[in-house]
UniProtKB/TrEMBL annotation:
Keywords: Membrane, Transmembrane, Transmembrane helix
PANTHER family: BLL0505 PROTEIN, PROTEIN-METHIONINE-SULFOXIDE REDUCTASE
Top-level taxonomic group: Bacteria
Annotated Pfam families: Oxidored_molyb
UniProt domain Oxidoreductase molybdopterin-binding: residue ranges: 264-396
Residue segments, region Disordered: 180-201
Organism taxonomic ancestry: Bacteria, Bacillati, Actinomycetota, Actinomycetes, Micromonosporales
Record-given protein name: Molybdopterin-dependent oxidoreductase
Transmembrane segments: 21-43, 63-84, 113-134, 146-163, 215-233
Length: 397
């Protein structure tokens, strides 16, 4: 009679990479990556959709460039770390549920559901994030809202998981990699499912090798992409999705053709405020005192590039028009119907002398793709809020 094949049990997996020592360290590294990614992503969301209590500073001018670079690169690093972590603990998927103990069975089921939620949310965030940096959207939902909502689900599930595994993880982290592996596996509380103990040199060497490989894969992934935001790494970042190339030496995400921009022959910049209005022709804008500043374009996709922008400080332009200053300013584009055809400059940005209505880039008149006839350039702002093809400035009450 043919014997039915036996389903594997957690103790059947004896590779050093499945030990609690390995899983705990990978979990710590992954937790750091997730924490950085979540915190900087939350900042980016609040900058773009600021609640009433939130204020983002104008200096240093590279602040958003740094925080968004950390956001994207920590997400990139999390991909190989997450895969390594899942490999280290997947034998626990074969643990038998305690069917004859209803209380323990309920706890087992809740743990499985929370882990499933965590893994699904983490993969959703990382996969859609990679598609976003590539500016590819093969789905129908609005990426920023979905990415923000699922981030909270992922963090909530992660905190529950950490709370449950904290005693096991703390014990595992206190052990040296060369020490005898704890009998308690990171994936579950049953000592009976711990598997054979391996404390010889081969097991210790295997644990170290797996961790080094995982850390190396994360490091290579970051190095291969970090050139998008770290200029001196661009030559060694073959997978960087944006390089310092494009019209007038700076990349663009949205071209004038894609935005359907038509600049009127008699273009006037409209400046309005409660109780007043003034139109300024382009030639008059060019005749006003200009300022040149080196400022970065830092996009939410993580890429950034610096250029020398020349234009009129918004503060001076409002004063020239007789408009009140020290207030928020709504900036509107010639583009109609776009999601980011308008943006609001907070009062602190509108009052900063480095916030420019730019007319030139690197000494040249703006090309259509860079926002001709004029565009906004404010320090420390996401590129998506640096409105191009500016047609109107509205001082808000």
């Amino acid at each position: 009679m043919t014997r039915r094949p036996r389903l594997p049990k957690p103790e059947d997996f004896t590779a050093p990479s499945h030990s609690a020592l390995v899983a705990a360290r990978l979990g710590l590294w992954l937790g750091v990556a997730f924490a950085l990614c979540f915190a900087t992503g939350l900042l980016s969301h609040h900058i773009q959709h600021p609640p009433g209590w939130f204020t983002w500073p104008t200096r240093p001018v590279n602040l958003y460039r740094i925080t968004q670079g950390v956001h994207v690169l920590s997400g990139i690093a999390a991909i190989p770390l997450l895969l390594a972590k899942l490999w280290s603990v997947y034998p626990r998927l074969f643990a038998r549920p305690p069917l004859r103990q209803p209380v323990r069975l309920a706890g087992h089921g809740l743990r499985r559901i929370s882990i499933l939620l965590l893994v699904c949310a983490a993969f959703f965030e990382l996969v859609t994030g990679v598609f976003n940096v590539a500016q590819s959207y093969p789905w129908r939902f609005f990426f920023p809202q979905a990415h923000y909502a699922v981030a909270w689900l992922a963090v909530g599930a992660l905190l529950l998981h950490v709370a449950e595994k904290l005693p096991i993880t703390r014990a595992a982290l206190s052990e040296r990699l060369g020490a005898k592996a704890p009998s308690e596996p990171i994936g579950g509380p049953d000592r009976s499912a711990a598997g054979p103990v391996r404390d010889d040199d081969t097991a210790a060497s295997g644990r170290r090798a797996f961790l080094r490989t995982s850390a190396g894969a994360a490091g290579i992934a970051v190095l291969a992409t970090a050139g998008v935001t770290v200029p001196w790494l661009r030559r060694v970042s073959p997978l960087a999705w944006r390089a310092a190339v494009g019209p007038q030496g700076v990349p663009v995400n949205r071209t004038a053709l894609a935005a359907g921009i038509v600049v009127p022959a008699d273009f006037q910049l409209e400046i309005t405020w409660p109780g007043g209005r003034r139109g300024v022709y382009l030639a008059d804008l060019a005749a006003l005192p200009q300022r040149t500043a080196e400022l970065p374009i830092a996009c939410v996709e993580g890429w950034s590039a610096s250029a020398y922008w020349t234009g009129i400080p918004i503060l001076d332009l409002l004063g020239h028009a007789g408009a009140p200053t020290g207030r928020p300013v709504r900036v509107s584009s010639l583009e109609t119907g776009g999601l980011y055809s308008t943006s609001v400059l907070p009062a602190n940005h509108a009052s900063d002398p480095l916030t420019l209505l730019a007319l030139r880039i690197n000494g040249e008149v703006l090309s259509p793709d860079h926002g001709y006839p004029c565009r906004l350039l404010a320090p420390g702002r996401p590129g998506v809020l640096q409105t191009k093809w500016v047609a109107r400035l509205e001082v808000l009450a």
